[in-house]
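Checklist before submission:
- one chain only
- standard amino acids only
- sequence pasted in full

Submission:
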Amino acid sequence: MTTDITTRPLTELSTHLTAGDFTSRELTDAYIQQIQAQDKTINAYVTTTFDLARQMADASDSRRASGSPLSPLDGIPISLKDVVCTTGVRTTACSKMLEDFVPPYDATVWQKLKAAGTVLLGKVNTDEFTMGASTQTSHFGVTRNPHDTDRVAGGSSGGSAASVAAHMCAGSVGTDTGGSIRQPAAFCGITGLKVSYGRVSRYGVMPMASSLDSVGPFAQTAADCGLLLMYMAGHDPHDSTTPDVPVTDYLESLRRPLTGLRVGIPTEYLIDGIDPEVLAVFQSAKAILTEAGAQIIDISLPHTQYAIPCYYVINPSEISANLSRFDSIRFGHKAPDTTDLIDLYKSSRAQGFGPEVKRRIMVGTYALSAGYYDAYYRQAQRVRTLIRQDFDQAYQKVDVILTPTTPRPAFKVGENSSDPVQMYLEDIFTASANLAGNCGVSSPLGQSQSGLPIGVQILGKAFDEGTVLRVAHHFDLSKQ
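Returned file contents:
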């Protein structure tokens, strides 16, 4: 079986598995060949699970042979970002602090996908504890962009995006705290869905900032992401932030026309400094939607200008609280030759955490400290409310909001790595959706003259993933 089957979209693979055109074992072996051939260069996978994958594929083939597949995803090989806990499989958050950690339980999202019959090929790279926009903070090295290996795949879910873009899996699960699904999806030329806050359980997914984190799918197309989401989403009694909102048939919603859809264009997002090629692709997206019968409406999100400073107060503050659990006693890296308990704490955390993690812990601890809490953290939360209100008011006038995903295509490895502020600005078009708790998707729509992918972002109301996927699906159809 040749590896050309690995280039096909996930939904198409599902159809072929159902028809018996090839087996899950053949498909899994084809992806393993792709990983073995390419990943030494791309560095998407941190841990591979080839033996487990073959066992899971064989079990899937047995179910299909007996006429009892678990779901349309049965036998589909995927990867998981290395913050999703998996029983018996190393899960490191790409940090020295956890480089040997093997969880004793599964995250809910993996429980659900495993129950649907998916096959696990391995765990993929991320910035350390998901802190970054390029995977350059990973303890295991940078993931390179399959379209140009001198450039980054984005972050923090760069390994997820690259593993899909390089056809080393059919789909992947990542996390998005300020753009960490949408930005790497745009850089790698695939579809990445940031779900509404609480749409997918975060139980068993290592947190960065608990009020901002969301778990979502990567795949080649909007239809692929919709199919994955149907088996990822839903209420979880282990995660109190997951409301009991029904999971809809996202594939059915893709079939609806765009006639009459109201598309908002926020004037604040068309800032100076956007790469002209990114702007050209954005303008082509507007033209495609207009031709499809959508109505383009100018809107204002006046507090957008405060999204990045607001985000980088709340985010480090929650990081400071979440990472306090790493005391090196119960789990995590333990420094040798320490003299007392305080020395153990200090030495283990100094050795186990990288520079970006330490930077955010210190900023967050400062923002939460006595005398500064009101000036920084409380004020940031007030601004967050204003940002959310801007979106609520906008969605009374429009159904979705269209923006660029990133201000430029993928940047070179090493670029901005010594300038954290410039790296933080990579989230300029994406972070506001996390602050508001809404959903959004990055859809690949064009390329730069040098062949780098360019994506556009469709933002939608909370729990309206079906509508943003419908728009992204229309962009997929426009390229055929």
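Reviewer check: The domain at 3-253 is CATH 3.90.1300.10 (Amidase signature (AS) enzymes).
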